Structures are given as structure tokens and as C-alpha cells.
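Teaching note: in complex prediction, the entire set of molecules is handled at once rather than each chain in isolation. The prompt given to students was simply: 'Predict the structure of this complex.' The entities are:
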Amino acid sequence: MAAPARSSSRLPSELANWAARIERAAREHGLDFFPVQFELLDASDVNGLAAYGGFPVRYPSWRFGMEFERLDKGYHWGLSKIYELVINNDPVIAYLVRSNSTLEQKLVMAHVFGHADFFRHNCWFASTERHMLDRMAAHATTVRRHIDRVGLERVERFLDLALSLENLLDPYLPLRQRLRDGAERPGAPALPEGSTPTFDVLGFLCAHAPLGPWQRELLGIVRDEAYYFQPQRMTKIMNEGWATFWHSRILTGGVLEASEIVEFADCHSGATATAPGRLNPYKLGIELWRHADRRGEDLMRLRRVHDDASLIDELVDEEFVASQKMFAYGRNARSGKAEVEGRDARTIKERLLTQLAWGGLPRIELAGVDAGGELRLEHRHDGRDLQLERAKETLRRVDELWRAGAVLETRVEGARRRLVARGGEVRVEELDEARAPTRAP
Amino acid sequence: MFRIEADRARFREIVRGKIRSDLAKYLSTSELIARQGAHAVSVPVPQIELPQFCFGENERGGVGQGPGERGEELEGEGAGQEGAGAAGDGLGQHLLEVEVELDELAEMLGRELELPRIEPKGKRMLLSDGGRYSDVSNSGPDSLRHFRRSYRQALKRTIAAGLWDPAAPRVEPVREDFRYRARRVTPTPESSAVVIHMMDVSGSMGREQKEIVRIEAFWIDTWLRSQYHNLEVVYIVHDAAAKVVDHDSFFHLRESGGTKISSAYELCLQLIREKHRPEDWNIYPFHYSDGDNWSARDTEKCIALLRDELLPRVNQFCYGQVKSAYGSGQFKKDLDDALGADGRVVTVSVSERSDIQRAIRAFLGKGR
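The expected output is the structure of the full assembly:
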């Protein structure tokens, strides 16, 4: 089985003992994970790491600096504080903030073992790179090398272009490829062989856009990292729910001392608090798992085979909607304010599924390359329009990479529209309803 | 410890570039003034966004948890922003605040308005650079090595180390013994300046007029502060009588009644005579009004005061005439007629905020 956690050597003995004890309890509950390595850090350092997505080394980018600035200010003014930071890696790396109380550290540890189990066993994570720490560092080295060679400005500019397109991937591709090939090839899926249609627009551009070698390498890095983070988007609710479910069960199952129960309850309820109009993934997640547990489902199987959308599809029923006081809300056209629309379970479930499908992103498919060399993208419209200005700007960037023009078909307030980007200009054309075949939403 | 500091520095550099290119916008708003600290202002900048394909406004609402009847309003913003796990990675219009040093802001201003650096007046400044090699230092080029001092140092060391033998008086200098001639740095007299802001606070000066003055004064002070080691700012308000006030009152005081501009000029002169003598200070009186004076006779008095007393003592006198609903604007005409040919006088009329930039350029563009 898995090696024991290598946590103990780095932590003060009290925390190391707790880590070992909690790990034992987690394993007794049936959780199974790569070794977990805890690092004890000052709060200010945690913000730096969080800006890097938890990785100690990333390629240089002002975007991380901006995120750091935001987190640091938030922390400084007491608006936000990062409790847990854990990365999907072998070993799993998790950070503990030095200023937290012992109880908080215990809670975070138990929570982390939940995530670690999820990372290892959820199918969407199966093809993620498990040595991402090294991979990120290698990416950083590559980017730095290119900066030395072609200059910061050009690299930065190109990275900004590429990062604008990091959403344009196919979240289901890694798993499909893995099932088809049965291969244990970790990391981003292989580049498509020019086959369209595809949702892996990034991959297509990597393979076929007229790029210089360094640009192709940078685009590949952006794609690689985007595919690494994608499963976390798709499983945010179930993953946080899973970790919360288990920290609660592990801690209240004998790890806590009687004197700690109140502080634990305070801490736990803080993490799972709800606000109107905002779904807390910790809260929704833990309730889903409790609901499944009450129904006598096999939790270990569910955590293996689902993502957020499919788990909700399987578990949410009228009873759940009612017990969780769920409601649908929308913007009142007259007052412009958000208000409760109703508590019909079917509507609510539909809403949730729409929002969560495709990792919460618009589905944008690369339909093909036209005779004139233009890249033709299609937005699979599901009732939600694209933010038009940003779409135009993004398409302009697609064209900047592709250089032979880029077209995006979408709908704006019900009417078919075509965005055309060429040579830095973007225009919006109306599309003839009769001529073009409509696609069901 | 982390490279994140380098990324933050790069981000701030980019933001500064943005502030620089948007400076014209900041020149006509009071946005920065309220955020001024001792050495820096914090500038609110929108987060720089990378555009991505994302859902727009007509996203069909969301799902929430909690009590509430149908039609009941949701409390708190953020409703409708972050639905269930909708990957809203905080792409909203968050404002970030970025600190910019006042010196840096002045530099941006100087570049944007192409302001010349100020040539300090007075002969005092000619002495500022001591050019004589009358000092001794521990380091320097061989060509400036001071043989006698180096030898003496070596001798002292040899004796102290107990190696001195009168029978064989050998002194071997080592690296630490060498002394070099060096240029004596004469401490330069600090170049000091005083800005005397005078404002008409009579009934006809409204809120908007004062706001314009406030913005102008902020940028003028920022620029002058970058040009002098030491800048003092004095505020004078006047209607029919003048008095010295502090910064806050200067911008918020509202008096009614008549306007006697000479009262301010007299007070200004008195200050110069008593506290800010022209031998020691670079003096910048600024006067803002809507151009209505009590009487033609008082205007004559003002002109005489300026010509005979103030102008000989100051670097430059600036008059900013802010257009108000009531002001006739006569005072600027009178000043121009009488003193328009004098290079030490700058008059500008400002009718709206977009003129501020032009006014600042006129005031500071002469490099006096």
C-alpha cells in the first residue's frame, strides 16, 4: 500500500503526532491516498503560494503578481484568510498556516486527507500529471529560457494571448483518450491530428497554428497546465464536500478532545455557512455526501466515477431540495434586483446542471478550417449568451495566433450572429436564419 | 523567499504604465487627492483582465440556499454573480489599489505635460558643487594616492604591531594603509521653496470652483515637491479680509460677502517679509478667484503691490481664474493689461475641469 506520510519530519512534534494520528484514522475510514507532505508556513507566504495555485515555482507572470496583490491586500485588511491549500501531486503537498490554532490545524489536516483521497481515486484526475510540482518548475525554466532569448516583452505578450484561450479545451478528452488507449500517459492529452470538429481548440492551435518554436512551446505549457487544473473545476463541489464530510467524521470520531468540540463546531459552521444567492460548495458538497450516505449508497464508488454535474444528477431529488431549502433565483427585469423565483425541484436541478456542465464554461467548438483558411468556431448556445465584448476581444486574439482570420458563430438575444476577426478588426454579422441550420440548445 | 515578489513588481510596473497613459484622466479628477499619504498616493486601478469567452448578462439566474418566499429580494451583492461552482474565478471588476510614490507621480506629470525642470534662482546654487580635492579617503585611483598620508598610516601600523626596528627602518605598506586625495563635498544649502495658495472664498466661488482649485493645487504641490528638497505650503483665504488657514479649511471654508483681493496680497507680502525671505526661499504665490474684485481702485492697489513688492521677491506669480456663474472675469483682464508683459506673471482662465491640464502646464511650463 501507500507509504506512510512524510509529514512528520517537517512539523513540530505536536503537529507531527496529530498528522500521524489523523492519517491513521483516515485510513481506518477507508480513505486511501498518496503520501501527504505538510508544510508549515507564515500567513504572508501562504498568499504567495496561493497566487501560484499552491506551487512554489511557476513561470514569471504579472498575473500571479496581481493575484498576490489581491490576496495580500485582502489579508492585510482582514477580509480574507486562506485556511487550506493543497495540491494534487505525489506526494500531496498541503500547507498549514503557522498562526492557526491546534484545532484548526487538525481540521485542515483531516480535510486534506479527504482531498488527497479524492485526487487519487476520482476518475477525472486519473490522467493528471502526478509530478506536477516538477512539471511546473520545468515550465518555469522553459519560460525563463525563452525570456532570456527573445525578451520579456515578447514572451509576456504571447503568454497573455495564450492565457486568453486557456478555456478552449475539451474537459472530457483526457478521460476519453485514456479509456480508448488504455495508456498510462499522464498530463495533457495528445495533440489532435488535425481532426475537426474538436473542442480542444488549444490543442489544434498548438499543432497547426503558424507559430515559431518558442511560441509553440509556450502554448503547449499553457495547455498542459489548463488540462491539469480542469478536473478541479469540474469537481469543486464534490471534492470540497468530500473533504468536509471526512474532516467532520474523522474529527468527531475520536480525534477531538471534549474541550475542542465547541471551537470545532464554530470553525466547521463557518466553512459551511450559506448566503442567499450564493451556493457554498463546502455546504452543498457535504450535504450531497450525507444524503448519499443516508440513502445507503456506496460513497467510495460515487467519489470515483462522478463529476459535479453527474453527481448532482444522481443525487438531487425533491427531498434533498426541500431539506436544503434550495431555491431558484433570477433577476427581476423591472427592479434589476435578484429575487427568489421558486422552489420547484425540477427547475432547480436543471439550473444546477446547466451551470455545472462543461466545467461551467461556454462550449465552444472548432468546427473546421474554411477554404479561405479561416478558423471557424461555433458556440453551442444553451440559452446563455456570451459576454459579447469579451468574446470579440478573445476572438481577436484567436486570429492573432491563427493569422488567417477567425469566425465565431453564436446567438445574441436569440438571433444568430457571426463574429469575424481578421487583421486586428472584429465585426459582428447577422446570420440568415433560413440558410443556416439551427442547432438545438 | 518566493519569486512572487518579482511578479508583483512586474504587475505594478504594468499598472504604472497604465496610470501614466491615463494621466490625463487623473488630472481632471480629485480621485487621487483623497488618497494622499505622506510619501505616496494609492491609486485605484481596475484589475487588468485577460479576455476569455464567458457568459454574459442573460445568464438565467442561479440556485441558492436559505429561507425566502417567491418574489423575495435577495440580500447582498454577489447574488447572481457566483452561481453553483460556476467557475467565476473572480473575474469581476475588482478594484485594486496600487501605491505610487509622489516623486514618481511628479515624474509622470512632468513627462506628460513636458514640464521643464525648475532652474533654481539665486547665486547660492552656484556654490552647491565643491570642486577642490582637499579631503582624504580610504579608496580611490592610484593617480590620486596621497604618499605622505599613506606612509604615515603604514608607519603607525608597523609601530603598533611591534614590528618597528630603528636599526632597520623598513615600512611596508599594505592595502589598508593607502590613502587617496578626494574631493571635498561641500554640503549644499538646502534648496527650499514655499507655495502660497491664495483663494477667493467669497460667495460667488462655488463647490465646483473649489474642486478645480483643489485639483490644481494638488498637482502643483506634487510637482514643486519633486523639484525642491523642502517644500512648505501656506494657505490663505480671503473675501474682504484675508487670513492664513490650514489645508482642510482652505478647501472647505465658505464665506460670503465681498471680495478684496489686495487683502490677500498684503498678507502674502507680510509672510514673505517675516517668514519666507527671498534670500532663503523660492517663492511661488498662486492666486485663484472668479475674477470679481470689490472695486477698480482695489485692483489698482493689487497691481501696484504685485509690481513693486511681490514680483521682485518671487520666482513666479500665478493667477488662475475659475469661471463661475457670477464672476465677471474682469480681474484677469486688468492683470494682463498691466503686467502681461512681465515674464514672472502667468494668468490662466479655467472654465471646466478639462482645462486643468492646460492651466498646470501654463503655470509650471516656464521652469522658473
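Point out the following to students. The first helix of chain B runs from residue 4 to 21. Chain B touches chain A through 59 residues (CB under 8 Å).
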